[in-house]
Amino acid sequence: EIGGFEGDTWETTPFYRSKWHTRGWTLLELIAPADVRFLSYTWEYIGSKEDRLEDVMLATGIPKDVLIRHGQTPLDYSIAARMSWGANRETRRKRDETYCLLGIFDVSMELEQDRYGARTGSYFEWQLPVFHLLLKKLLEKYPDTSKFPWLEGCLSEGHSGERPDRVPSSPKEFVHLWRAYGREAVLEVIQKGVLG
User: Fold this and answer.
1) Cα–Cα distances in angstroms (integers) from residue 87 to residues 15, 27, 155, 183, in the given order
2) What is the pTM of this model?
3) CA 95, CA 130: separation in Å to the nearest integer?
4) Rounded to an integer, what distance in angstroms lies between the CA atom of residue 131 and that of residue 123?
5) DSSP character at residue 195
6) Across the chain, how many H-helices and E-strands are there?
């Protein structure tokens, strides 16, 4: 789906607009390997991850140091920053919005279909959002929310003095609430709603 570039501004290039940059599972495909090579839809070589580093960073919001692995890993960035990398990613199944993030948070979760799922059509739609299970794992791993892992990183923080009325149910909603209400408010709601 990626074509040529002649006459395009950067934002209108097929490379930037490619769905590949917003698909959920390509997040790990982009970060994990040292070498990623991009091809056009006609199988023409467009460049490597390192050749197109600036373009990939602008299209995904992932810092250069993580993309090219120069001593930085996703774990060197705050939870909020890593959450922002997944906020605009799309998946066919709602729960995959969460599952495609597990690698960048260094957590594992079992698929708990019997306990949390209800049969809907041809696949399980979760009653308890899988994203809440991820938040619970992160709170268990990093219980002190005043320390580095939870700090804002690249996200601007709101300070409305109010509290959100719900626990975020997706990476996109997490980032939205973080920006609207601020770290303290969002973490308080998450702790009450997820840890009970």
Assistant:
1) 20, 11, 12, 16
2) 0.76
3) 6
4) 17
5) I
6) 11, 4
Q: Is 104 exposed, middle or buried (0-12, 13-18, 19+ CB in 10 A)?
A: buried
What integer pLDDT is reported at residue 126 of this predicted model? Answer: 43
CA distance readout (Å), 17 to 14, 34, 114, 115, 162 = 5, 23, 39, 39, 36
Assign 136 a pLDDT band (cuts: 50, 70, 90). Answer: confident
Answer with the residue of higher pLDDT: 16 or 51.
Answer: 51
* Residue pair 88/59 in contact by the 8 Å Cβ criterion: no
- Long-range contacts: 161-164, Cβ < 8 Å, 24+? 163/188, 163/189, 164/189
The stretches of 43-129 forming alpha helices (DSSP H) are 53-60, 64-67, 79-86, 96-99, 102-105, 113-116
Reported confidence tier of residue 5, pLDDT bands at 50, 70, 90: very low
- Report the 10 Å Cβ neighbour count for 40: 16
Cβ-Cβ contacts under 8 Å for 44 (sequence gap 6 or more): none
State the average pLDDT over residues 108-122: 51
Token pair, residue 48, equals 């490597």
Give the burial class of 138: count Cβ atoms within 10 A of its Cβ; 0-12 exposed, 13-18 middle, 19 or more buried.
buried
Query: What is residue 156's predicted lDDT score, i.e. its pLDDT?
Result: 53
Residue type, 41: Y
Instruction: Give 120's strand partners.
Output: 123
